[in-house]
Every structure is written in structure tokens, then in C-alpha cells.
Amino acid sequence: MIEINGEKGGGQILRTALTLSSLEQRSFRIRNIRGSRPNPGLKNQHLKAAETVQRLTDAEVKGAENGAETLEFKPKTLEKDSFTVNIGTAGSITLLLDTVLPLARKTGLRLTVKGGTDVKWSPTIQYLKQVKLPLLREHGLKAELKVDRTGYYPKGGGEATLNLEKSDINRFKLEDRGSLERIEVHSKASKELKEQRVADRQADEAARILKNSYMSVPLDKNSLYTDTASPGSTILVKAVYENSVAGFDVLGERGKRSEEVAKEAVQNFKKFHASDSTVDKHMGDQLITFLTGSESVLNGLKSTNHLRTNLETVRKFGYSIDLEEESKLVNLLSRA
Question: How many domains does the chain have?
Fold first, then answer.
């Protein structure tokens, strides 16, 4: 049984372990789950990820309860399935979907998830739909995401359905991002914020700053108002490059002007664009599971603790991924 220490990392270590355990049909035990956090142990959204993968693999699981700091997972199979998972309140839908996306290497599935679509400390549903999935499709992933309802904190109430087909992702190669081709601004807010023009103001301000920054590429913007259980807003600045896609999302907050939300997203994009990174900093560690088991290259990543702890977890499953540091960025080389 593979032994993993989860003290230094958050839920990403558990999600990666669940993914690789399913793909390789290898058992693992993770101890000290989220041990360095003020509130260590499993939370509801971590349990839902484990329960989802348990159903797909008919796994034997020990320790799957709130607050548990040790979990054992023994998969028996990996089968195509179709079902619904209710995380409850505003638990992150995108983080749960990230757990199952790499399973496309071995099987397909149809998964509807209810919870939070746009919440703190996780990618927004727009980022997943507009940035991550398009990038992965360029490397062979067959996946479609339908967003049925947006869910903000605290009530959540969001819903999204992922259709995943078995996919050939045998070689992931991304050495440089290439030239910037276009920028997209996707702005969204609850219908009760329409009178204040929140989504429109976010989109307009982001476009204004970008145009004043001499970005000589096409710029598209759109605003959307939608029914939600709790009020909220989101903006995503999407940068499409010749070989890559990057995204910069920001959530609106009470007391924070729409223009400030837009400015923050654009500043994050401009900082990235001035670097040599191939993907944004949040994408780097999320892509590691797609490199495993093949000759793959992923260059120009921002070195983060999330990336390094995730890499350690992948190596626990016997994968060979070398890390090379170069000019404050890192390159990853996976060997079959």
C-alpha cells in the first residue's frame, strides 16, 4: 500500500491520490490530511470527492468521515457510470470535477454535481469551461461541460454536468505558449445585481484597461446575469495564445467595487503576460496528472508549493517526472 503524508498540502494531495489510485488500481493510505491547516482533516467536499471515486472504482474505503486525518482507499475496478453528486451548500464543484477529469485515459462518465460553482480557493466554473477544458482538448481530452445553474457562497445551489469520453492523452507536450492571439472577458453576476450593472461594469472596466495597455489583439467581452441562491459576481480574463490558454478569474465581494474586481483580474493577466510562463500559476499543478505514464513535456511553470507537493504525490505512485529549474520557472519532463 502506498503511504502518503498529507501534512504539507491541502485537498489537492488527496484528489491526486484518488485519481492515480483509480487509474493504476493501486491502494493508498494518506495520513495527517491537511495537517498544517488551522482546521485539519477531511471536510465535506473532500469526502464527496472520495465517495465519487469510490463509486467509480467499487473501492474499499476506511476513514471517510468529517474531521478524519487518515484515509485508506483500495480500488477494485474502474467502470463507466452516470450519477449525481450533491456536495451541499457552496462546496466547490470544480475541484471535484478536477479529480475525475484524468480518468478519461481509461473510461468515460457522465457526472452531475451540485454545490458552489464560483467560490473562494478554487477555480471558477468559467475558468474550467473556458480555459482548462479548451487547453486539454488540444491534447486529446474529450469532454463537455454544461453549467445549469451558478452557485455563490454561502448558499451555493449551483449545478453542472460533465460528459467525459474515453480519451487518448498519451503524450502531453507544451514547451512555449507562443504569441498572444486574442483576449476574452467573461463577466457574470446575479440577476439582483443587474440594476447596479455589476456584470457590465466589470466587463467594461476590464476592456478599458486592456485597450489602454496597447494590447494589439482582438478583444471580445460579454456580460451575463443569472439566477442564483446567493448574490455574487465573477469575472474571467481569458488569454488565448498560439499554443496555450491562460485564465485570470476574480470573485466580487461585498464592499468591493466592480471596477476593482475587473482591475485585479487584468493586473493578474498583465503580470503573467510579462513573464515566460506557458500556463497560469493555478493550472500548473492541475496538469501534472495528465503527464503521467507517457513521454510528456510541460515547460515554463511558476514554482509553487502546490506544484511541488503534488509532484511528490505523483512520484509516490511510481511515475518518473523530472523537475528542472530555469530562470525562476520550472520545466517538467515525464518518462513513460
Answer: 3
What CATH number is associated with residue 136?
Answer: 3.65.10.20
pLDDT digits (tens, 9 = 90+) for 86-132: 998 899 999 999 999 999 999 999 999 999 999 999 999 999 999 99
Q: Which of 46, 186, 282, 306 is catalytic?
A: 306
Q: Which of 322, 316, 283 is nearest to 19 (CA)?
A: 316
**Can 306 be counted among the known catalytic residues?**
yes
Q: Is the peptide bond before 154 cis (omega within 30 degrees of 0)?
A: yes
* 140 in any annotated domain: yes
pTM over 0.85? The answer is yes
Q: Domain containing 217 — which CATH number?
A: 3.30.360.20
- Residue 331 counted as domain residue: no
* Coil/strand/helix, residue 68: coil
- What is the distance between the alpha carbons of residues 108 and 143, in angstroms, rounded to a whole number? 9
